[in-house]
Amino acid sequence: MRVTTRLAAAVTTIAAVTALTACGTLQDASQAAGAVADTASTVQLCTEALAQATTAFDTDSPERAVEQAHSAADSLSALAADAADTTINEAVTAVAATLRAVTLEDLVLQPAAWLEDKATKVANLTAACT
Questions:
Q1: What's the CA gap between 95 and 9, in Å, rounded?
Q2: Which residues contact 24 (CB under 8 A, 6 or more apart)?
Q3: Dihedrals φ, ψ of 102, to 5°?
Q4: Separation of alpha carbons 87 and 119, rounded Å
Q5: Could you tell me which of 99, 100, 79, 101 has the C-alpha nearest to residue 90?
Q6: DSSP string covering 42-70
Q7: Burial classification of residue 79, based on how many CB atoms lie within 10 Å of its CB (0-12 exposed, 13-18 middle, 19 or more buried)
Q8: Using an 8 Å Cβ cutoff, are 129 and 88 in contact?
Q9: Model confidence, pTM
Q10: pLDDT tens readout for residues 85-127
Q11: Alpha carbon separation from 130 to 88, 102, 125, 126, 127 (Å, rounded)
């Protein structure tokens, strides 16, 4: 009888260890899948943010260019709200602030300075996304 009891205890222990190992493996797989999903979300967010940030504005109409910049800023702000990564969030927010702050005077009187500032912010966003 003692042999049967020991055998039953051994089988139960093996089954429990196997179940716990399988549970750990499933948890690891779930975490890996979550990491892949987060990476895919980040790539999509960065792609959309860079597309908005590098949109060419209407060079024939400074008024229209300001409107386009402000519209892009709104889109970028919405994207920043979805960014889980703090560095990316800050970079997207910085580009949005630059686009939102542009005025007609900036584009007419000092376009090179504004474009340089925008280019710096876009470069920072590109670096945050890589």
A1: 64
A2: none
A3: -65, 140
A4: 17
A5: 79
A6: HHHHHHHHHHHHTPPP-SS-HHHHHHHHH
A7: buried
A8: yes
A9: 0.69
A10: 899 999 999 999 999 999 999 989 999 999 999 999 999 999 9
A11: 10, 27, 9, 6, 5
